[in-house]
Amino acid sequence: DQQVKQNSPSLSVQEGRISILNCDYTNSMFDYFLWYKKYPAEGPTFLISISSIKDKNEDGRFTVFLNKSAKHLSLHIVPSQPGDSAVYFCAASEDGGSQGNLIFGKGTKLSVKP
Amino acid sequence: DAGVTQSPTHLIKTRGQQVTLRCSPKSGHDTVSWYQQALGQGPQFIFQYYEEEERQRGNFPDRFSGHQFPNYSSELNVNALLLGDSALYLCASSSFGVTQYFGPGTRLLVL
After folding, report:
1. A96, A101, B68, B90: most buried by Cβ count inside 10 Å?
2. Which residues of A touch B94 (CB under 8 A)?
3. Cβ separation of A91 and B48 shorter than 8 Å?
4. Candidate from B50, B58, B104 with C-beta closest to A101
5. Which DSSP helix (H) or strand (E) runs through A59?
6. pLDDT tens, residue by residue, B39-70
């Protein structure tokens, strides 16, 4: 049973517009969430994270929103650029991340068209 | 500042063989985690090493074992390879926190 779900395998967005990637989780013990970006033939690159004590975290063009009651988080990319085209993974952790076990979703492939 | 490095980049083995994958953590990191990523899936946690000991383990059989050296580098060993072990093996390093930084991975093909 998947504890972290990314229900959209792919997303296509026009350059300059907003990209919204969604992630749902089932384990109420998760209290730290991360987003990673992965290009082909490379390892995942850390983008942004959020603790369950917050509902929003921003870093430049990237913003992550957390809705604990809905067990849902989303990553907003504004404005989207062609270089953002990659697979995006949502990951979750328990105990504030003190444990090593990150649980990943299956990823969403984002295509940003010029 | 070198990031996480892994070797080899690609590997082909046959069923029943054994394989060793290597990882050097990012400078200043003392914790190494290993993940398996099958095609079309997200990475799955295998185990984590800290202070040369296995600190946590995911749902993988004993055929998967590891080691961490005093310089914090790490090895992943897989015995009695199965076709289903074909995957991208990712190493991630961290220190005093959650954020794990990943290497480029080793792609293993078992024939």
Report:
1. B90
2. 100
3. no
4. B58
5. strand A56-59
6. 989 999 999 999 999 988 999 999 999 999 99
